Amino acid sequence: MKAQTRLIPSLLAATALSVAAMPAHAEAATDAAVQAQLQDYKATMQAFGKTLKGELQAAMKEGGPMAAVQVCNERAPEIAADLSEESGYTLRRTSLKPRATEPTDWERAVMQEFEARKANGTPVGEIAWHEVTKVDGEKQLRFMKAIATEGVCLTCHGQDVDPKLKAEIDRLYPDDQATGFAEGDIRGAVSISAALKD
Ligand code: HEC
């Protein structure tokens, strides 16, 4: 089994790098594997959103935004790390105007394209992207989905964040760029990547 797993990348390399040059059956197999893994990515992403939103809303209700900021500060990266460990995928959130997580070059390019799609009238909720790419000789499936700014987000990401709260955010994130958003803007994106299991 192990030997077989190790064989797969070299087989793929020997076949072809581009999908266009692959035999039809190999292309179909890859496409099915991509679709299956994307479904799994989406489930992981939804689990992340549900857990974080639940904790954020509970903290807001109990202790207001000053308490909720601690949830985002500590729990958002923890939940992402836990889900990444459980699933074997790398899950993170990033933004063109980040608070905590600077995008990589490819994540930045994808999010710039998301802004162009939004400007062309695509609803933010429908904006997503994926690609299969080779990273260090391994086929990887990368996925990103835009995150819309909702009313509740404006407390900490809006145009007039309460000065006391903004001071706390600046203490935690001296390079914060993640304010000035309006409802409906793209706040950032979820990014998930892992080796393609095919
Ligand atoms: C109580 C304050 C607060 C609220 C409300 C809040 N956030 Fe954040 N947000 C933060 C903090 C703090 C971070 C940095 C934590 C991290 O992700 O490591 C953050 C980070 C993020 C990031 C990660 C990218 C980056 O900038 O580093 C995204 C995306 C994001 N928030 C989206 C949202 C959305 C969408 C909402 C509304 C549904 C929301 N936030 C509501 C405080 C808040």
TrEMBL record:
Signal peptide: 1-26
Native organism: Guyparkeria halophila
Highest taxon in the source lineage: Bacteria
Keywords of the record: Signal
Protein name in the entry: DUF3365 domain-containing protein
Domain Tll0287-like as annotated: residue spans: 33-193
